[in-house]
Amino acid sequence: MKKQTPTISEADVTDETVYLNRRQLMKNAVTLSALSMLPPHAQAAAKVYPLKYRKDASDLPLTPEQKVISYNNFYEFGTDKGDPIKNAQNFRTSPWHVTVSGEAEKTGTFTLEDILKWNPLEERIYRLRCVEAWSMVIPWVGFPLADMLKRFQPTSKAKYVAFETLYDPEQMPGQRSRFGGGGINYPYVEGLTIDEAMHPLTLMAVGLYGKTLPPQNGAPIRLVVPWKYGFKSIKSIVSIKFTEQRPRTTWSELAPNEYGFFANVNPKVAHPRWSQASERIIGTGGLFAQKRRDTELYNGYAEQVASLYSGIKENHFF
Ligand SMILES: Nc1nc2c(c(=O)[nH]1)N[C@H]1C(S)=C(S)[C@@H](COP(=O)(O)O)O[C@H]1N2
Ligand SMILES: [Mo]
């Protein structure tokens, strides 16, 4: 977000037929690939459900997998888009623990294996809209965050949910210096209101393209909130806390005039340094041939989420 350093590579130029084949493949074989490519512990729990929110699947090509896993924002592994795939390959995602704390009847520390047993996995195809005005369409594998949170029985004081990424400078070079990590005060933290966290579109993802998450995409477990700018979708989560007060969030703390707590996608609210009216579609050609599309309010999910914000003025979405 601080830097915009797009690069052109051979992989940027993707033939339309590759998209079409890929999409057809996904349509026909998603069940099979999702089941066969998940790790053994996840296969046991994997089922495929009717995909209620699959509105994009019929009219939007998926972003090629190679793009999804090589053009990343994960500042813990460097601030250039190509840094995470290089620097995260040896990231240890097992054993992995997530601590659940705060305003809930039940709390504790759980292994990833525990968490994967609680809920069946499903596929959700969502557009990811980065605040830097580009987007991808990604087939995630995961489960609704609500299904996970309900089991902890949040109390009436739980007004927000706060999330934290792993802090491990030994493994994450971006955390070793202010310079290398984009000036962020690590660990990366994010938060949602309890209503946002409980919304059926809010996903905890453990995979994409039918496989476990690559480290650069936030392995082993990350949030996906499709109607908000990408920075809300915090990666490699180790802590979930129910709170009464609005939690700190990394980007709003770093640049409060540029990034807000809500960060709902809104084409009419410009970033102070660029317009949000349209977006580059990643994977549709090199830098100068890339297609664009008009950005939609709530990234196209207004029908499902607008009621969450009925009392709030438009400009305050940011
Ligand atoms: N911990 C952490 N989570 C993060 C980020 C980050 O730098 N660190 N970047 C965010 C941003 S800006 C975006 S656009 C998405 C990118 O997700 P992807 O690389 O899987 O496409 O992750 C978000 N989650
Ligand atoms: Mo982003």
Which keywords apply here?
19% helix, 12 strands, Sulfite Oxidase, Chain A, domain 2, alpha+beta, 7-stranded mixed β-sheet, binds molybdenum atom, 21% strand, disordered N terminus, 9 helices, binds the ligand Nc1nc2c(c(=O)[nH]1)N[C@H]1C(S)=C(S)[C@@H](COP(=O)(O)O)O[C@H]1N2, 318 residues
Distance between the termini: 16 Å
Order of helices and strands: HHHHEEHEEHEEHEEEEHEEH
Q: How many helices?
A: 9
Number of domains: 1
What is the CA-atom radius of gyration, in angstroms? 18 Å
CATH topology: Sulfite Oxidase, Chain A, domain 2
Q: Name the CATH homologous superfamily.
A: Oxidoreductase, molybdopterin-binding domain
Name the hetero compounds present: ligand MTE, molybdenum atom
Biggest sheet record: 7 strands, mixed
Beta-strand level of the residues, as a percent range? Answer: 15-25%
Provide the CATH top-level class. Alpha Beta
Question: Tally of extended strands?
Answer: 12
Report the principal-axis shape. globular
Named at the architecture level, the CATH assignment is Alpha-Beta Complex
Helix content: 10-25%
Q: Which class do the helix and strand fractions yield?
A: alpha+beta
Unreliable residue runs: 3-55
Mean pLDDT: 84
Summarize the structure.
Residues 91-251 form the Oxidoreductase molybdopterin-binding domain. The chain is α+β, with helices and mostly antiparallel strands.
Structural notes for this entry:
The chain is α+β, with helices and mostly antiparallel strands and 318 residues long. The protein has a single domain (10-317), classed as Oxidoreductase, molybdopterin-binding domain (Sulfite Oxidase, Chain A, domain 2). Helix content is 19%, strand content 21%. The protein contains nine helices and twelve strands. It has helices spanning 16-37, 40-43, 65-68, 83-87, 112-118, 145-150, 194-198, 250-254, 302-305, and strands at residues 97-102, 108-111, 122-130, 134-144, 160-165, 189-193, 203-208, 211-212, 222-224, 237-243, 278-281, 292-294. The strands form two sheets. Strands 3, 4, 7, 8, 9, 11 and 12 form a seven-stranded mixed β-sheet that branches. The longest helix has 22 residues, at 16-37. It binds the ligand Nc1nc2c(c(=O)[nH]1)N[C@H]1C(S)=C(S)[C@@H](COP(=O)(O)O)O[C@H]1N2 and molybdenum atom. Molybdenum atom is lined by residues 73, 130-132, 230-231. Molybdenum atom (MO) binds next to loops. It holds the Pfam family Oxidored_molyb. It catalyses: L-methionyl-[protein] + a quinone + H2O = L-methionyl-(S)-S-oxide-[protein] + a quinol; L-methionyl-[protein] + a quinone + H2O = L-methionyl-(R)-S-oxide-[protein] + a quinol.
